[in-house]
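Deliverable D4.2, example record:
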Amino acid sequence: MDEIQKMIEPFFIPREVPVFLMKAMLESIYKIEVTGLENFPKSGGAILVCNHTDALDIPVQAVFLPRKIVFLGKYEFFNPHEEIIEFINQKDSILSVEPLNIIKKPIEDSIGLFGKIFSSQIQNWGGMPIVRNFRGNDAKAAVSYYEDLENYMCDILKSGEILSIFPEGTRTETGVMAPFKAMAAKLAIRANVPIIPTGISGAWKMSTPQAILSGAAFKTKIIYNVGNPVPPDQFPKVNEKKSSKMLTEEIEKRVYYLTTHWERRGQSRRFATVL
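Output generated by the structure prediction step:
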């Protein structure tokens, strides 16, 4: 931990504060129903998987589940100051012209400090920055980066954290769930932790300005269902590659089931025993 990190850590805003505020905001706009919380593990590491319908999926998980969730996020989101600093250091920047160039360094230092505080705070709440489509200087560097990232995620899981992964890889453009990628299953097998299948429905395109301004969002019911965890002793007993494929297919079926069938009234308790 560097000196700046040590300096700002005592001033971190507790996670309970943004959770309370975000929950209040979500409940003032949407009707949110969460079922199956009795299935959520009270302790230990696990991978949380869900279909990805909208930007709302992440805050719903973050504030309505009983434990802190670790989320993967774009590196750029955690470090917005880098782009600003790059901009003010351009040759045609107004801060490169005398006499304003005198204040460029203090401004750059202030922006950098703010960026570090912001990034550290978000990570303290459960964010985890990653570089998407990392290539580096060559293919070997890219392979090394993703190996290190995978090892880091395994360490997080083994330390007892819940890591959220959306196996589709991106938000749906059509509202229809896309095929799952095998990363979540591969990590669960490597870290020897359960996978918690969950499904969300009703959130698609409900965070857009159009949905808010038209009033459609205020009439929307979002349902988030938590299924039974799949423990490691239920993982397929074959080689890692085949096991990851089989486990991914099973989890995909369960998540799809949780996004559709559980919406039918009067059936949630029966499905809870199946999933």
